[in-house]
Protein: 3-phosphoshikimate 1-carboxyvinyltransferase
Amino acid sequence: MSHANTPTPRRFQPGAPLTGRIAVPGDKSISHRSLMFGALAVGRTTAKGLLEGEDVMATAAALRAMGAAIVRSDDGTWIIDGVGVGGLLQPETALEMGNSGTSTRLLMGLVASHGVTATFTGDASLSKRPMGRVTEPLSLMGADFTSSPGGRLPLTMRGAHPAVPIEYRLPVASAQVKSAVLIAGLNTPGVTRVIEPVATRDHTERMLTGFGADLSVEEIDGTRIIDIRGEAELKPQDIIVPGDPSSAAFFVVAALLVPGSDLIVANVGLNPTRAALFDVLRAMGGSIEELDRRDVGGEPVADLRVRHSELSGIEVDPAVAPAMIDEFPVLFVAASLARGRTVTTGLDELRVKESDRLAAMAEALTLAGANIEEREDGLVIEGTGGEPLRGTSGERVTTHLDHRIAMSMAVAGLASRDGVEIDDTSPIATSFPTFEALLAQALAA
Ligand SMILES: O=C(O)C1=C[C@@H](OP(=O)(O)O)[C@@H](O)[C@H](O)C1
Ligand SMILES: C=C(OP(=O)(O)O)C(=O)O
Structure:
């Protein structure tokens, strides 16, 4: 991807409060799935509000390479002409996944039960991430893999046709692993079962049900048992993608931290498997009001009114981690300015995201003057009690090709005395290409 070759440094300065109204772009998880399920349906699916970030575009390109017709019409609606479950074609070249773990792992599930061979490649960040978590269950279903040492990209896989249905208990709380197995189950005879001891985002289950798949979820003592009956026929859908709570998070925290802010962040998806950050910030004393709660495309959505607030430190219950897994970097920024100590635990998964997010945020926030202790499975943060962070002078924060580190430290810069300089803003385009423009809008309103 181009961003790997052209680092774009930038200094984020303190200044005006965040005011007015901004609307965040479409949810990344739902956008990937809209394209994938549309590509497997028989007929034409449309998606409005699709996130046009690099990660989602990598999914679109891979699906085109396997036979789906995917175009953006002039009014911004995406049109997907599906090939039907079982109808994927052999891609002629390697599938370039860029920075996107979701594209890679979910598409591996899709290939696993089709009789095609595909090679997956990625950027330097993605090539370090573990793929064994999906190759293991997909091998049990009959797919065959040749990967780089440690189950990393580049990786070549041969799908099995017919694949074998399995019952798989997730060893890690991962919606990507769950989804890979369920998607493989779509073209597998019989019933594929995923047992999920800790609930993770449930977009795959909700959306596949909407597309007409025979999928059931039973919950017993907090454990979810998800069954999907294969050789499904998916019916095309007209999808409206709600706004991404993970993108909204940066603006919500910025408005809480910068004095004088009073910002409306519109169109925020509040699926309970995604929205824990907002509850944690409220428990810290944050003023976050839900306006006009409504339903968009089967997901709860609201506009959030966020006002500058004095925050207090908190012990974050590790049980809520899956429902805010991508939001910890920006929570660490909020905690750095809170009164007292914030303790986070149970966050081992953060070490295998686009970067090791515990190490990267500990390093970045320390450079900006915060008081951070890095532990094996979380950070302990002594907040300033509302005093701005010092900021960075002379040195640049390293973002490690990680969009969420870049945006979190941009927020830290707004809440600092001297500003924060980050080494590369280009990874932001993977999930939130309009971030800098919306920030300029909220600062100028
Ligand atoms: O299924 C998804 O769309 C995602 C699942 C999460 O990953 P894990 O399954 O690795 O936790 C999350 O971090 C990622 O941004 C998107
Ligand atoms: C972890 C993330 O994405 P992915 O796994 O798709 O690269 C993220 O967006 O924070």
Notes: The chain has a mean pLDDT of 97.
